[in-house]
Specification:
By secondary structure, this protein is α+β, with helices and mostly antiparallel strands. It is built from four helices and six strands, in the order ββββαββααα.
């Protein structure tokens, strides 16, 4: 489900056109329709408001002036763990496997009080 502050990729006639951030979603006067305020991430920045159904907001195809359009929510890919970080993590597990499992959380706020 696309929500406020999500990044979407706007497709025009099945071609990616521009990225946009969803600035707001509010109910329109027509039941089942919503105003979607988009910040187009281009130079210069531009703010547009489109009136769309919830299915269109969530990726369904719609038309504007007879042209096919679609919003696709952008999800950032998971950052691959570097080989160096993985090696350090594995080395730590080998050295102190008991310490990691029985680790104790120390409150920094309690330390500042002393």
């Amino acid at each position: 489900m696309t929500a406020i502050n999500d990044i979407v990729l706007i497709h025009f006639e099945d071609n990616p056109l521009v990225f946009a951030r969803v600035e707001g979603i509010f109910a329109d006067v027509k039941p089942g329709w919503y105003g979607v305020k988009l910040l187009l991430l281009q130079v210069p920045l531009q703010v547009v408001t489109w009136i769309l159904r919830d299915t269109y907001i969530n990726g369904g195809e719609f038309t504007m002036n007879g042209k096919r359009m679609r919003l696709e929510k952008v999800v950032a890919p998971a950052e691959p763990e570097s080989a160096e970080k993985a090696a350090v993590k594995e080395e730590t597990k080998k050295k102190n496997p008991e310490d990691i499992q029985g680790a104790k959380v120390i409150s920094l706020a309690d330390l500042k009080k002393k």
